Amino acid sequence: MSKLDIACACGRIRRASRALTRLYDAALDGAGLTTTQFSILRSLARLDGASVTELAAAMGHERSGLTRLLRPLADAGYVQMGSGVDQRSHGLRITDAGRGAIARALPGWEAMQARVETCLGTEDRAALFDLLERIEAIDAKAAA
């Protein structure tokens, strides 16, 4: 067996992630949000007033990439980007319109959550989340 014939963990996880993202994007389409935008808004609702750096760390994003993702949300009036001492310290606030966008998207998101739970079952879903947490820990160890 060639080394090229061995399944790549990264490739398999990325392929599964793309498939799941397509399903969630379709579920959220009626609300006018992508899965990434919904995730950012939900995280920001929990961390209201966070800097871009703090939000990026909480979400596992790179700060520069997150800034690009925030721009359309700010343009839509869902996020207010306050002025800080520098770019890294901008206070981000979710607006009432952003909370409304979450509320519109929530039924589709909940339906997809239920579909995933039904397909995987409670035990496999919990095992998947445990495995994903362990994979994220590999990155944390590498960064240390």
Automatic annotation (TrEMBL):
UniProt-listed Pfam families: MarR_2
Domain (HTH marR-type): residue spans on this chain: 6-137
SUPFAM superfamilies per record: Winged helix' DNA-binding domain
InterPro entries linked to this entry: HTH_MarR-typ, MarR/SlyA-like, WH-like_DNA-bd_sf, WH_DNA-bd_sf
PROSITE patterns named in the record: HTH_MARR_2
Identification of the protein by name: MarR family winged helix-turn-helix transcriptional regulator
Provenance organism: Sphingoaurantiacus capsulatus
